Amino acid sequence: MPAQLCLLNSSPSSSSHFSAARSSHGIVIEEGGRLQAAAVEFAVRGQPGPMSAARPVTSRTSVLADMDAFFQEFERTSFSSRHAEHFWTFDDAKADFEVFRVPRGGIRFLQALWGKYGSCSSYFSRGVHVGSSLLTLLCCVLAHMEHTRLGDITEVHILEWKAVVQEAIEGGFKFGFILDYLRRLARDIFSRRVLVELREAEVRVAALRDALNAVAPSPWDLASARRASAEARTESALHGLLS
């Protein structure tokens, strides 16, 4: 669905290793190897209990960092350095819209906005030429939005569109609702990215559970693995043999 339409319509064990077990997700567990130890440590860490409470998760995923950076930029006042042709090219024919001269092919966008949200130019006072230029640029953005599917929208698209709208707002047009709509589009983009990462995390958790079952298939083995993980940082390697 085009973006503009919503706006207008709302992975060989050696002799030193005992065995290797491969899960259905392709993870190899080697008893006596660092990979096995890391897998157990990671799996135990993710289990409920004292270890989980002792190690709060403080890292932020890349999508959250990207989202923070994006919205900081989105909320920063910036004007477009793009020419109208960067977004869309209408024919040379101009037509009147209120007191402004805009591309004839773009009038339908303005009429739809005015019809749904009311007059957006009632506070504009910077002259007909400036207003015509701002509305022409906006028409090109709206045409670009109309021909961009929701699944193809990128953060760059939204920031470029936002800059045009923001410039028109600074010029006196009442287009705050377009900024609100662009925020919603951005949230949708990041929501989809979060869902992708969530699905990847679910696969990772399932693989780690397979890994844990391969090295600690019984409750006693699991308790031993938890205890070994908890003591690993404070006890010597000889402690378990002599105590």
Structure commentary:
It contains eleven helices and four strands. It is mainly α and 243 residues long. The strands form two sheets. Strands 1-2 form a two-stranded antiparallel ribbon. About 20% of the residues have low confidence.
Please provide a brief summary of the model.
By secondary structure, this protein is mainly alpha-helical. It has eleven helices and four strands. The chain has a domain of 132 residues.
Defining key terms:
243 residues, mainly alpha, 11 helices, 4 strands, 6% strand
Structural class designation: mainly alpha
Strand content: 5-15%
Radius of gyration: 29 Å
Provide the helix percentage. Answer: 55-70%
Strands across the major sheet, in which order?
1-2
Uncertain residue ranges: 11-59
Reading the helices and strands in chain order gives: HEEHHHHEEHHHHHH
Indicate the mean pLDDT.
77
Largest sheet: 2 strands, antiparallel
The number of helical segments is 11
| Overall 3D shape | elongated
Distance between the termini: 68 Å
In total, the number of strands is 4
Topology:
Layout: H1 3-9, E1 20-22, E2 28-30, H2 34-45, H3 50-54, H4 62-75, H5 84-87, E3 94-97, E4 100-103, H6 107-117, H7 128-146, H8 155-170, H9 176-215, H10 219-231, H11 239-242
Antiparallel strand pairs: 1-2, 3-4
